[in-house]
Structure formats: C-alpha cells, structure tokens
Design brief:
The protein is mostly helical and 70 residues long. Helix content is 86%, strand content 0%. The chain is built from 3 helices and no strands. The longest helix is centred in the last third of the chain and has 26 residues. The protein is rod-shaped, with a radius of gyration of 17 Å. The chain starts with a helix and ends with a helix. This is AtpZ/AtpI family protein. Keywords: Membrane, Transmembrane, Transmembrane helix.
Length: 70
Amino acid sequence: MDAKERESSMEAANQSSIYINIVIGVIVGIVGVFLRFAYDSRMLSIISWAILAVGTILACKAVFRILNAK
C-alpha cells in the first residue's frame, strides 16, 4: 500500500458520518439497556431487547465501515 492509498484510506475511515452512526448506535443501546432494567413487564422487556439489538447493529455496522475503508 503506497502513501496515496493510505491517505485515501484514512480519509474514508475518518468520515464524520461514521462516528455519528457509532454515537447514535451507542445512545440507542443505552436506551435499550435502561428500558430493560427500568420496568418489569414482559412486553417492555421484549421491546427493550429489540432496541438494544438495533443499537448494537448500528454501532457494529459503523465500526466495520471503518475497518473496510480502503
């Protein structure tokens, strides 16, 4: 990998949209964890697990975009 390719890879990995997606995923995950332990209801527990899963997927997707920046 030459210097030009490394520079373009760094630019792609440092896009602010990627880091905004990570922050959104973490916030959604925190909301899911809070709802999971805030109340004791089967339906709310299922919904909170779904919210937590969505937050995890969003954050992981952004991290994999950073790793795949070539």
